[in-house]
Design brief:
Length: 212
């Protein structure tokens, strides 16, 4: 009887956790109010070197190991944004073809960035870990470890669901940009400070060009 209760309880906990996580992720997908596909960040470089005309270079691919493999062999799209001291270039390429968007910084009216992190998942992860520790101290070691593993899973989901959006709007009303999340394979994190610095860099040279 005791074994049956112990077996049912974790299964019930898993179902509850999965439902909550699904709802939180579903809620977070619209948090940036952006129709852009979320890509995994593979490159983020900024420079104001006098020896180089390139200020910013960002690249992203589809998520997952399969997305990484397909991008490496050229069978899936990789989106790149390059900002020089005069232009912004956006390119999407795959085996099926390529698309380019090029605009001068003079024609950009504004630049924007946004940051989303599913903080509810983080809080949930902390609560589960603490609850697991309490159970272990109460000699319910097996159940405590199980709850702590669920907490670790929630934290991993929280970490890889952080999103940053960088976008610009042209004087004609066109919107261009990227929405991206951290990369486990490439080891590139999502950082709001990087996004703000990128936007400020675009804004700086946009104003320089528009004053000419």
């Amino acid at each position: 009887m005791m074994e049956s209760e112990f077996f049912v309880s974790p299964i019930t906990a898993i179902i509850v956790i999965l439902v909550i996580v699904f709802l939180l992720i579903r809620r977070g997908k619209n948090s940036l109010n952006s129709p852009m596909m979320t890509l995994v960040l593979t490159k983020f470089q900024m420079s104001e070197s006098e020896d180089s005309d390139e200020l910013l270079s960002i690249a992203g691919r589809k998520s997952g190991l399969i997305g990484w493999l397909l991008t490496k062999i050229g069978l899936d799209a990789e989106t790149t944004i390059r900002v020089t001291k005069k232009e912004l270039l956006m390119k999407s390429s795959s085996l099926a073809g390529e698309s380019y968007s090029i605009m001068t910084l003079k024609n950009i009216s504004s630049s924007h960035c946004g940051f989303y992190k599913p903080i509810t998942l983080f809080i949930f992860a902390v609560i589960l870990v603490l609850f697991g520790l309490i159970l272990m101290l109460s000699n319910l070691i097996g159940t405590g470890i199980f709850i702590m593993i669920l907490g670790a899973i929630c934290y991993a989901i929280y970490y890889f669901n952080k999103k940053i959006r960088i976008m610009v709007q042209t004087k004609g009303g066109g919107v261009f940009g990227m929405c991206f999340s951290p990369s486990l394979i490439e080891g590139i994190d999502v950082d709001m400070e990087k996004a703000k610095s990128a936007v400020e860099l675009i804004q700086k040279y946009m104003l320089i060009e528009q004053k000419k």
